[in-house]
Design brief:
Length: 509
């Protein structure tokens, strides 16, 4: 039997899974790391934490599985997108990574739009300048830390830094590179025009591959440390969402998925390039060679729930420990006891600004309608509903673009939660399904590794053999709930419009 490894370098943790070639999970391991917010709206992580988590979890799955190193034919890495990793001449990390949800680069976005031209920027990179994307982070370091910029010899994305550690190669692939705003997305190669206009030296960037292509093999010292073989191939892999698409079988037109990780995403496959003229959803290359996708992003989806548990619903963790269950079991029990609309409490999940649909770095979270009768149960329900309203906004724009979605899969930490999945089915008004392997991105890149290692002929072929849907977890929409949620969703949408200018005032105080 052949085996494949998928690594998902998330924002909350790295999850590494060893699959057999039929998609069965043989062993898995995870390791958490911190997210640093040194200023309001800033977000950083340490690339060294990602490196240590990847090495530790690979070693663990190889050991726990008992699989012979030579039978592990391929490895793929999926990662949180957009983060900026800068390495010096010796390959050492220069500063912490400024990651995807950091909002400090509004001025640099203006600089990009001015230098490239708004129309040309969308024609080439398929997206307007956004604070989340890597190009503005590169310019921020050049504008604010010229000494660090001068030392920088290699610019990598988070997962590509881990690839460098494993293989010694400076490589990336089209799906993640799309989120740097330096790629010509229709042509799937670096844009000389954008690089010249922004005065970024192309030699700083890694070589671009398609996602299933082989980018290298495991270095001898890493093989020694992890128990892998030096003949295991490492493929391009994918940004976490493009990887999750492969891992949930979203590899042809009509298919879509929603994920709740730290962020939340609604993603639809598209065999033709399709761009929202208002830039509210992103258009990127997908992991299937020759295809693209559109996706809407909620900045703080699972992160809103994590924030809620750390700061407001702290009792859930304590009681869960006492009762020997998970905190989400108790949250779910409370949410189910609370009616739709959380007793007239609405939560706006804008803890880190928002991308879809507002593209606003300065908006922030709100509990609207707070009354003395409200409890943490109402707040928990309001947070879950707020996340789902935001994902519904993403889905509505994709539908508005004429992209026909017939099937919605769910994945990510939040999709493990049946209450959350039902909420999404009710709000989207369509069936929401899941696959048996809970780690969508890890399975997705393991599938890509299977193609790169020559076990499968194509990504589509590998998906047919490695993905198994879980019929027991299918959620069907309840028409009465859809109608009820819609009333609150209308008010939820109006609240942003009403507060838009006040957010700006707050940011300038
Ligand atoms: N059972 C659950 N119900 C709802 N949300 C959950 C559950 N388990 C995890 N989460 C949420 O999922 C997020 C982590 O998901 P994950 O896909 O691992 O994220 P990432 O890839 O960003 O590290 C956390 O922020 C947490 O709030
Ligand atoms: O910024 C984006 C997509 O554009 C995020 O989806 C990040 O890629 C982070 O992912 P998670 O850690 O939430 O999975």
């Amino acid at each position: 039997m052949n085996y494949l490894i998928g690594i998902d370098l998330g924002t909350s943790s790295t999850k590494t899974v060893l699959f057999d070639e039929e998609g069965t999970v043989i062993a898995s391991a995870g390791k958490d790391y911190p997210l640093y917010t040194p200023n309001n709206g800033w977000a950083e992580q340490k690339p060294e934490d990602w490196r240590d988590a990847a090495l530790e979890t690979i070693a663990k799955v190889v050991k726990d599985s008992g699989v012979a190193a030579d039978d592990i034919k391929g490895l793929g890495i999926s990662g949180q997108m957009h983060g900026l990793v800068m390495l010096d001449e010796a390959g050492e990390v220069i500063r912490p990574s400024i990651i995807w949800c950091d909002q400090r680069t509004e001025k640099e976005c203006e600089e990009i739009t001015e230098k490239v031209g708004a129309k040309r920027l969308i024609e080439i990179t398929a997206n307007p300048a956004l604070t989340g994307f890597t190009a503005s982070k590169i310019l921020w370091v050049r504008n604010h830390e010229p000494e660090n910029y001068a030392k920088c010899k290699h610019i990598l994305l988070p997962k590509d830094y881990v690839r460098y550690i494993l293989t010694g190669e400076f490589a990336t692939e089209v799906s993640d590179a799309s989120g740097m705003q330096l790629l010509d997305v229709p042509k799937r190669q670096w844009s000389d025009e954008v690089l010249e206009k922004l005065d970024i030296d192309k030699s700083l960037l890694a070589k671009v591959y398609e996602s299933p292509e082989v980018t290298g093999t495991i270095l001898p010292e890493i093989a020694e440390k992890t128990g892998l073989s030096t003949s295991t191939v490492v493929v391009g892999g994918a940004g976490d969402n493009a990887a999750a698409a492969v891992g949930t079988g979203v590899v042809e037109d009509g298919k879509a998925f929603t994920t709740i990780g730290t962020s939340g995403v609604v993603f639809a496959h598209s065999s033709d390039i399709s761009i929202d003229p208002k830039g509210r959803v992103h258009t990127f290359c997908c992991a299937v060679p020759g295809a693209w996708h559109v996706m809407g992003v909620t900045q703080a989806a699972g992160y809103s729930l994590a924030w809620f548990q750390e700061n407001i619903g702290t009792e859930y963790a304590r009681k869960a420990k006492e009762q020997g269950c998970g905190a989400f079991d108790l949250i779910n029990a409370d949410v189910l006891k609370t009616p739709i609309g959380a007793n007239r409490l609405i939560y706006l999940p804008y803890l880190n600004g928002e991308r879809t649909p507002h593209l606003d770095a300065n908006c922030r979270g709100v509990f609207f309608g707070l009354s003395s009768m409200h409890t943490t149960a109402d707040m928990a329900r309001a947070v879950m509903e707020g996340i789902s309203y935001s994902l519904t906004d993403c889905n509505d724009i994709i539908r508005e673009m004429g992209i026909n979605v017939t099937e919605m899969m769910a994945c990510g930490g939040g999709a493990k939660n049946g209450v959350q999945r039902q909420m999404m089915a009710d709000m989207f008004g369509c069936d929401v399904k899941t696959v048996t392997a809970t780690e969508g991105p890890a399975l997705g890149v393991a599938i890509l590794a299977g193609v790169g290692a020559g076990i499968y002929d194509s990504v589509e072929d590998a998906c047919r053999k490695m993905i198994h849907t879980d019929p027991e977890k299918e959620c069907h929409p309840d028409a009465a709930a859809t109608k009820e949620y819609d009333k609150f969703h209308q008010l939820y949408k109006k609240l942003y419009t009403d507060l838009k200018d006040d957010y700006q005032t707050l940011a300038n105080l």
